[in-house]
Every structure is written in C-alpha cells, then in structure tokens.
Design goal:
CATH architecture: Up-down Bundle
Strand content: under 5%
Largest sheet: none
CATH class: Mainly Alpha
Bound molecules: fe (ii) ion
CATH superfamily: Ferritin, core subunit, four-helix bundle
Number of helices: 5
Structural class: mainly alpha
Radius of gyration: 18 Å
Amino acid sequence: MDKEIKELLESQINNELQASYNYLGASIYYQLKGLNYFAKLFYEQSLEEHEHAMKIKNYLLDRDQFINLKNIAEAKTDFSNLLEPIEFALNSEKEVTKRISYIYDLSLQKKDYLTAQFLSWFLEEQVEEESQFKNLLDKIKTINDINLAFLILNEKSSNGKS
Ligand SMILES: [Fe+2]
Ligand SMILES: [Fe+2]
C-alpha cells in the first residue's frame, strides 16, 4: 500500500476518534443543561464516529498494514452558547468531507482502487452528516430566541413529535 495513503488513513482514525470525543463533550454539555434530546443526538453521533474509526482500522488491517495510534486532544464540555456545539459540528463535518475527498482523489491518482472504493462509503455518509447538522441549525434559527428554540425542539423531540 502507498505510504502517503496509508499515513492519511492512519490520521483519519485519529480524526474520527477526536470527533467522537468532541461529540461526547457536547453531549455532556447538553445533558447538564437538561436538554436530553440534544445530549442523546450528540451521544449517538459520538458512537458513529467511533464506528468510523474502527472501519478504517479494520480496512488497514485487511490490507495487512501496521497502525500507529496518535494522541487525542482534550474535548470541550463547556460552550459559550447552546448553538456553538452544533455550529462546531457542522464545520468539523465539512472539514472531514474535505479530508476524505483529498484521500479519495489521491487514491485514484495512485490507482489504489480498493481504497477509493472503501472511501466512497465515507463520502456518502458525509452528505448525511453535514445535512443533519445543517437542518438542525436551520430549524433552530426559525425561532429568534435561541434558548427558547432549544427548549421547544427538546420538548417536541422528546415526545416523539418532531
Ligand atoms: Fe466520521
Ligand atoms: Fe461525522
């Protein structure tokens, strides 16, 4: 396997685990605010990011590659307002889309079609993840009072009416 592609995939394991950790932090923040719907949403997202990391780990092992696991930085559990974690999440998903696209492009250039095929699943997943956070932001912004918007959405969604 090409060294550059391998190292980029290795870093992507780290990025996914960092995202998982960051979303766990956001989940804790919302939980402490009593916003259970948002806490659950970020907790589930955190688990998904962990799964993404494992998918890449398994792919590298299937290709018989040695794997280095890098440091994960601390994650915020406090934010300046309720909107911040969602804006942060949308931006970091856009960043992930760029990174995956870059590795995808490189794998095509280097004729590593196995990796390109493997990454196509991630590209599809990114469309979903970006739109999930974008839709949530749009919904919240329909109400002028942000705190009220969170309360309403939390109540509606907890009752399964959203
Ligand atoms: Fe991910
Ligand atoms: Fe994601």
